[in-house]
Sequence to fold (485 residues):
Amino acid sequence: MQIQLKLQRSVFLLAAFGCVFPVVGSTLPVLAESDAAAATSTESKSAEVKIIEPAAPTRSQVQNFFNNAEKNATKGKYTDALADYNRALQADPQYVQALLGRGVLSVKLGDRTSALADLTRVIQADPKNALALAHRGRLYYELGNISAALTDTDQALALDPNLVPALVNRGFLQTVIGQSKPAIQDFNQAVGKQPKYAAAFVNRGYTRSTEADLKSALADLNQAISVNKKYAPAYLNRGVIYEKLQQREAALKDFGQALALQADYVEAFYNRALLQADMGRFSDAAMDLDQVIRLAPERSDAYFRRAQLLVLLGDLPAAMQDFDKTLSLNANQPLAYKQRGDLRAQLQNYQGAIQDYNQAVALNPNYAAAIIGRGQANLSIGAAINAVGDLTQAIELDRSNAVAFEKRGQAHVMLRDARSALADFSQALELNPQSADAFYFRGAIQSALGQRQAAKIDLTQAANLYRQQNQGEGYRKTLAQISNL
Fold:
């Protein structure tokens, strides 16, 4: 019987519950007075032509540059804000508050290198600037330096224990490193100091969810929404809790509300996509992933999830394109290589499939599923000896895998090793008594060996299973085999 390779559906899991990591707010500072008089124009003495230098901005003008930058940043006019910060700093390169503002804005604009440089300059000029330390701590987290993030945040709070967003940030960081108890203490302090600070409730809810206290987590998220009904992250995170509680429609409603409040909320689209996929709403899920990719085109996980959906929807060429894009963005993904290999095998590109399985195994030498896939692909091209080697390796990794025994049995059939084949099919049936193929092959071998009674029992069972599983081709072939006994 021809081996039918199918791309198995992967379990769609919700993205990791996202803590809100708030931006630490800053106050509008006043430009420090300078004793330096405004620069005046000068004249050239070398010619009759009078050269007039432009006057340097006055203190009032520099202050206006800064104030305009702050206003534009608040309105979301980030390009204009950056230009105004630059004007202020061109006039006064040591203007600490403008450096701080530009550093925070650069984080928003994704320019982390410039942000780190500006925030570090602020701290060098003013080592006791708690806001700058808090902001740099947050930036270090985004850069993946948790230790430096904690150091800066600790120092910020030592300087200003009432900096509530920094308390929330530290709690978040402690949750990231698995320190739930001190994280909860920080969130409790934050709530005590600022009872209507929604981010504190959201983060505490997340931390409680990591401790499997979903009831308390839900209460925190309800409280976050109570104090700020327009806070999109609260709806997103409550949606995740509802999903964990199997309240899927409530989860979908919350994800939708998060998007109503923030139309470009990537994580809301992503989480809703995964939930809808898990509910079998594949087309809706794919549309949500389209939005994720539109908003965040470098997210390899979005392409990967969409590729899985496209396979389920039957659009195999588009699925292949998404798998290719996934791996071009992040080649360190054994699961993506394995699933692209599955798709190539389904399209009968067995050599391409073997290459993908090789990559998956190179990244994860104990990846039994990829090794089995490679064994099946070798079996499909008639490389039975290679198939036996692969499937034996897979069995050594996991002796409970019925598929590995069944496929190795088929490879033994190719090699005319009836005894080994019978042993493998019998073991496969011990592990999975519903395998119609294993009954069929074992029955066929018994028939060839003249064991007609045993063959009839196995083939009859195979026929029954094929019929129950709606496998018409297998059912017809088995009936033909029985008629020849």
Notes: The domain at 56-160 is CATH 1.25.40.10 (Serine Threonine Protein Phosphatase 5, Tetratricopeptide repeat). Residues 452-468 form the longest helix (17 residues).
